[in-house]
């Protein structure tokens, strides 16, 4: 998702007001920029997702796509939020200007925490398969969160460990890394972020592809945790009524891969 | 070392002679000759007709390529041919010719993946070192990046290829297939102004073109039935040129978007466009705008190397041959399905 900044980026007009908190660019994806700022009060942090104009696209097409994508993401976040799926809440939207203002989630993405934990375990000399309670717990929470999202009819479209966050608990925030915080590395609520490619679907195929993409992400990014992916699926299987059929479908998706064989 | 390359996976038969120098200097293209089977307007090319065309032309082209290159049989180190992917009958006709030459001249055979041929030739010509590759042609649409000895496919068309979408729309409009249907659409699109609403089907790094083709075909039929249609916004008369313009703007925006996503994903700011659709100047221009916005640059080649050709097969085959790869006669088959990521790229770090 992230890349190094090599050129000045356009600031959305909303962040250019003298009264707003100085924006901090967090990441730059292909389509959107993510800033940290504040909302209403200087003490209330927020995330601002901004989709700048794409000069290569015809202006009519560009406006149409940006509007559609901002609104779609906002609607899906709202839907998830209403039904209790752990996602950031929506503070404000301006689809004409191309931005979406969201709750700031204090914490880190699962990819970072999991890699830190895996490194810590290796340095400690613990063998794979031992003392995995904490990891199992995280995998269960991931399975439950994804299941809950699918249960309300939303598929994510880009489920990776970079799009799952672990929310820091307020009191643990300070000492998390300072003193022996490693035991807490995998603690915290799992929050699903970046619904930019999400859609409404109740097809088991779409849900199974979501799981398959997540499984592949574990395989390529955290091969040492891949063995426990079963735990994610187990927890997922119990999370909503249609889940067992999705798991059955996942076996088909695994067999053929997401990709077709190439003709011509 | 010098290699002869034979390509015939679709409606073009190409023969090329390439020379690689020992000191790692740029390769020399000694000859690069092609003959295209052009179907009548409104029709696509059928495998049996294309295979017949290739069989008729292969000997003439090989003789001509050798003469232009000024080489003799003794100079040739190996014979490279397209193993796949492509249309079965044309592939077979060229594979037979390659086998014949191999036996006649007693030279090693090298079977080459067509897509890897495009990528390696593009890298050689442009000097792009480790770019994200957009491979777009009548049969393929892929976003590729190199990692650990494979050209990995990050995104691709989930149904028809982008070139197929353009070619079939050219058939709907009954415009000429000479020199290529996509070229004639590009010329028409230059006169278009009104952007019509078409589906935009990007799914992560993949995309889909079948729905767009259906929609634009419907719009074309409506326009034929009622040529007096006007754009509700500007009040301008809608023309066939506007259809071509809208189609190009939409599908190329999709291609640029998935390429940009792959670039962000792998952290690269170079992009190389290969394949027949890569000749399109509007696509090149859009890609350039995107790449410049990311502080990078775009590499593209002209029709000699973008469109299927023999030299790319000679080049990619010779690289593999120099790395110790060859195809024994009994394994010198061809295949319609041959994914880019199946090839072990032993010649790169």
TrEMBL record, chain A:
Residues 20-264 form the Protein kinase domain. InterPro entries: Bud32, Kinase-like_dom_sf, Prot_kinase_dom, Tyr_kinase_AS. Keywords: Activator, ATP-binding, Chromosome, Cytoplasm, Hydrolase, Kinase, Nucleotide-binding, Nucleus, Phosphoprotein, Serine/threonine-protein kinase, Telomere, Transcription, Transcription regulation, Transferase, tRNA processing. It holds the Pfam family Kdo. It catalyses: L-threonyl-[protein] + ATP = O-phospho-L-threonyl-[protein] + ADP + H(+); L-seryl-[protein] + ATP = O-phospho-L-seryl-[protein] + ADP + H(+). This is EKC/KEOPS complex subunit BUD32. It is an enzyme of class 2 (transferase). GO terms for cellular component: chromosome, telomeric region; cytosol; EKC/KEOPS complex; nucleus. It comes from the Eukaryota. The keyword Signal does not apply. The keyword Transmembrane helix does not apply. Component of the EKC/KEOPS complex that is required for the formation of a threonylcarbamoyl group on adenosine at position 37 (t(6)A37) in tRNAs that read codons beginning with adenine. The complex is probably involved in the transfer of the threonylcarbamoyl moiety of threonylcarbamoyl-AMP (TC-AMP) to the N6 group of A37. BUD32 has ATPase activity in the context of the EKC/KEOPS complex and likely plays a supporting role to the catalytic subunit KAE1. The EKC/KEOPS complex also promotes both telomere uncapping and telomere elongation. Belongs to the protein kinase superfamily. BUD32 family. Component of the EKC/KEOPS complex composed of at least BUD32, CGI121, GON7, KAE1 and PCC1; the whole complex dimerizes.
TrEMBL record, chain B:
It catalyses: L-threonylcarbamoyladenylate + adenosine(37) in tRNA = N(6)-L-threonylcarbamoyladenosine(37) in tRNA + AMP + H(+). Keywords: Acyltransferase, Cytoplasm, Metal-binding, Nucleus, Transferase, tRNA processing. GO terms for molecular function: metal ion binding; tRNA N(6)-L-threonylcarbamoyladenine synthase activity. It is found in: Cytoplasm; Nucleus. Substrate binds at residues 135-139, 167, 182, 186, 280. It comes from the Eukaryota. Binds 1 divalent metal cation per subunit. Pfam families: TsaD (PF00814). Its EC number is 2.3.1.234. One of its GO terms (cellular component) is nucleus. A divalent metal cation binds at residues 114, 118, 135, 308. Residues 29-314 form the Gcp-like domain. NCBIfam families: arch_KAE1, gcp_kae1. HAMAP family: Kae1. This is N(6)-L-threonylcarbamoyladenine synthase. It comes from Calycina marina.
């Amino acid at each position: 998702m992230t890349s190094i900044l090599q050129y000045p980026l356009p600031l959305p007009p909303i962040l250019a007001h003298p009264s707003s908190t100085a924006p901090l660019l967090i990441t730059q994806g292909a389509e959107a920029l993510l800033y940290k700022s504040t909302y209403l009060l200087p003490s209330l942090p927020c995330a601002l997702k901004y989709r700048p104009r794409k000069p290569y696209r015809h202006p009519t097409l560009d406006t149409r796509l940006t509007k559609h994508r901002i609104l779609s993401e906002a609607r899906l976040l709202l839907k998830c939020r209403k039904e209790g799926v752990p996602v950031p809440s929506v503070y404000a939207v301006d689809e004409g200007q191309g931005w979406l203002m969201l709750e700031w989630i204090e914490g880190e993405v699962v990819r970072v925490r999991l890699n830190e934990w895996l490194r810590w375990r290796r340095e400690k000399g613990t063998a794979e398969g031992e003392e995995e309670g904490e990891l199992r717990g995280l995998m269960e929470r991931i399975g439950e969160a994804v299941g809950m999202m699918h249960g309300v009819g939303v598929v994510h479209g880009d489920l990776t460990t970079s799009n799952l966050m672990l929310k820091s608990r307020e009191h643990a925030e300070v000492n998390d890394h300072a003193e022996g915080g490693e035991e807490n590395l995998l603690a915290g609520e799992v929050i699903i972020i970046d619904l930019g490619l999400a859609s409404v679907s109740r097809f088991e195929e779409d849900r199974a592809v979501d799981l398959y993409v997540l499984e592949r992400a574990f395989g390529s990014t955290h091969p040492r945790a891949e063995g426990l992916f079963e735990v994610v699926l187990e927890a997922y299987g119990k999370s909503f009524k249609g889940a067992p059929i999705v798991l059955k479908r996942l076996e088909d998706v695994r067999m053929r891969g997401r990709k077709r064989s190439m003709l011509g | 070392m010098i290699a002869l390359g034979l390509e015939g996976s679709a409606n073009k038969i190409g023969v090329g002679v390439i020379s690689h120098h020992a000191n790692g200097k740029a390769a020399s293209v000694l000859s690069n000759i092609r003959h295209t089977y052009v179907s009548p307007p409104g029709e696509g090319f059928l495998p049996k007709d294309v295979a017949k065309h290739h069989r008729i032309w292969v000997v003439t082209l090989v003789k001509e390529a050798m003469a232009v290159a000024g080489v003799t049989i003794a100079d040739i180190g190996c014979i490279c041919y397209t193993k796949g992917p492509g249309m079965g009958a044309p592939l077979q006709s060229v594979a037979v010719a390659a086998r014949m030459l191999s036996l006649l001249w007693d030279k090693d055979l090298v079977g080459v993946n067509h897509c890897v041929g495009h990528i390696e030739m593009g890298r050689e010509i442009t000097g792009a070192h480790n770019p994200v590759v957009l491979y777009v042609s009548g049969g393929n649409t892929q976003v590729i990046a190199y990692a650990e000895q494979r050209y990995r496919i990050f995104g691709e068309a989930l149904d028809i290829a982008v070139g197929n979408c353009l070619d079939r729309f050219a058939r709907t409009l009954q415009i000429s297939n000479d020199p290529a249907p996509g070229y004639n659409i590009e010329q028409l699109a230059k006169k278009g102004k009104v952007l019509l609403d078409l589906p935009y089907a990007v799914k992560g790094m993949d995309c889909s073109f079948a729905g767009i083709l259906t929609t634009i075909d419907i719009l074309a039929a409506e326009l034929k039935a009622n040529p007096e249609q006007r754009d509700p916004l500007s009040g301008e008369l809608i023309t066939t040129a506007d259809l071509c313009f809208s189609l190009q703007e939409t599908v190329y925006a999709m291609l640029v978007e998935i390429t940009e996503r792959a670039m962000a994903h792998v952290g690269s700011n170079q992009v190389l466009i290969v394949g027949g659709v890569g000749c399109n100047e509007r696509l090149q221009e859009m890609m350039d705008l995107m790449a410049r916005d990311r502080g990078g640059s775009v590499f593209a080649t002209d029709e000699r190397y973008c469109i299927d050709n023999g030299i790319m097969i000679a080049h990619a085959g010779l690289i593999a041959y120099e790395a110790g790869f060859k195809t024994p006669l009994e394994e010198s088959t061809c295949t319609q399905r041959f994914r880019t990521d199946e090839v072990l790229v032993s010649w790169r770090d």
